[in-house]
Queue: 2 jobs
Job 1
Amino acid sequence: MIPRKGLVSICIPTYNGADYLQEVMGGILAQTYRNVEIIIVDDNSTDNTLEIAREATRNVSEVRIYQNSIRKGLGGNWNKCLEMATGEWIKFVFQDDLISPDCIEKLYELAIQTDKKMAVCGRTFLFHQNVSRAFQENFLNYVRNNSIANRFPDSSGVVLAEDFARHAEEYPVFNCIGEPTAVMFHHSIISRFGYFNTDLTQILDWEYWMRAAINEGFCFTDEKRVTFRLHHKGTTVQNRSEAGLLDLIDELIVYHELYYSPHYAGFRNRMKLDIPVKNLIESKLISQYCAIQSIIDQYPENERRSYLIEKYRFKGNGNPVHPHRSPFTVHRSPSTVNGER
């Protein structure tokens, strides 16, 4: 498929998103950048999400609404959006997030001006009253510590690939870019670097940004053009309440991909010139596996967890696990996540 030049595919993955979808759609339909298609992929919702989506877009010509026949889970639903997108650019908007009317226009202009394949904007946060004060404080502290401004203080709108690679050496599992609603990326990112890794539970967006930025860099603006909403139904809040083993497995996967995936070959070539960093990534991969093994007996037996731990364990200095294909084609394994955030 040849992407349609200048077209932005607005991808909206949904699952039981009736609470906020009407408001979200209002912001999408008010965009000042008009060359867009709207793609809504519903992951077999049990509420009236689809009815709201159809009603909100009934006068929109460039819209496609699709419902999965069986649940694909978080990453699987995101990937279905990417499969359906025909635009030159991809812009995710989640079912409970908000974007300013000029969000897409400004990100598109920024990407064209800087000749970068990924554009990022600042975001504000809207906490539902049922989210605890402790969670809010911890979340905002994490965001401040891992902001682009904090991690790249000398960058003025562009982070080069080599600078991001140095960042990834030091902070490989901390998301400094943000959630998908804050990002717009070129369709060629999919053909070059594949799809979201559905084996990840919480940081699948970060690993995808890292996979792209470590090779391409990115451009950014501190202007806050999106609002990320957190509430008790959102996967971000749910997953943080289930932290521990899931976090360890996510980090194990990231270290494994840095060490083995062909998408990080340039990163590894750079590490060869910096043996301490290479040894550090290797030691983190091994220690993460050992940490999981030390606590796994505390959790009920789970076939999927066992599969992931075996798949992503340290395997020595041999070839990548899947040397004959991209490891991030669309996975068909079941997801453990029930939300669409």
Job 2
Amino acid sequence: MAAEPKLCVRRGLWGSECLNTANDPKTQVGVNFPWFRCGWDFGPPPVTRDASGKAHPWGPRRPWEKYKVKDVDGDEWDQTIDTDLRDLKDLGVKALRWFILADGVNYGMPRWDTAANRWSFDPPSLDRRDLGRESEFVSDLAILLKKVQAAGLQLLPVLISFEFCFRGLDPRGPNNTVKRLDFLSGGRSDTIADAAKRTKFLDKVLTPLLTASKPYQKAIYAWELINEPEWCTQGLGNNRAHMTVTAADMKTFIREGNQRINAAGFKSTVGYAKQKTLLGSTDWRLGETVHQFHYYPRGERLSANPFPAREPCIIGEFAARNPETSRAEQRKDNQPWPDFAGTTSLAQSAQAMFNRLRWIARRGYDAAFVWSVNANSEKDPHTDWSRATRDDIKKYTNGKAKA
């Protein structure tokens, strides 16, 4: 049997130390699914209307349930979510993180406010009592949860992502005419910034989804209110045009959302984009029962988990893809992990998924969610769902999810 490769990490400016990994701690391994069709995996598909007004759906509802796959030879066959879940279980994966409303593209349609030159949004209810029927968003989530539970896995559903609050496409044309749009990504920041709409959204959207989750309590890893809120929050993001929500309003939204999740009997979490948001101060610890941040190094070493055992802390995203062999090809947010010795030579063995998981466990984190299974690997510099990645995950877990 081949010897286990050494895990060597930096010590000081020039030194390194190879750790004895015989009794390594183990961390749970999760994956970011994180969508099949970004923004409309749940609920009715968006539509585009032709000149006659006829609606053309973007695709079938629940596009993940059954779909076509082509191999390198062009041969096509049917694939199902049930097969995907069995494959993840076989790798030893514990849970999958999946976006529900994402950017909101199929959830209501904002109205252009000509006086304010911005989108205004009144969040539609998903409550059966208001609709007189079951919402498609609610029933689709229940269908997925039933499948996840049957597969012996858990789901980490993410209610919205930061793009939900982006300004949205400006519809104004020549002479300030407003173009009619069939759909819109973003433009829904009122959901957080307006107190009455925020309450409505939490009561009429989050609560029905939590209620639908209750029959599958064991299949819920945690409920995540928002993915990477920094990018739409004033003072935290790096693009002023997208920062539509004040820090005070975002904190209120997170605090009130976490309260509802906790009261429903689920663990609550928020997917902070940066470790310093969560670990740098206590300002953004707002009642979640599972702490979470995402780790894309940008030159920063991975901090040790500072939370006591009774307060789980997870890494909700980290890149599967190894940095390219040329530094000129690296993106700022997909640099080599600076903790590993040998990163100056971009040693692929040092940066491999197996070593990343071992180091995360060494730093004391309860779980780590790989980015990602389905994000387009050609466009996304972080995704590499290759055989090598999957083999490393299975090697780490020994093909059996940690309880």
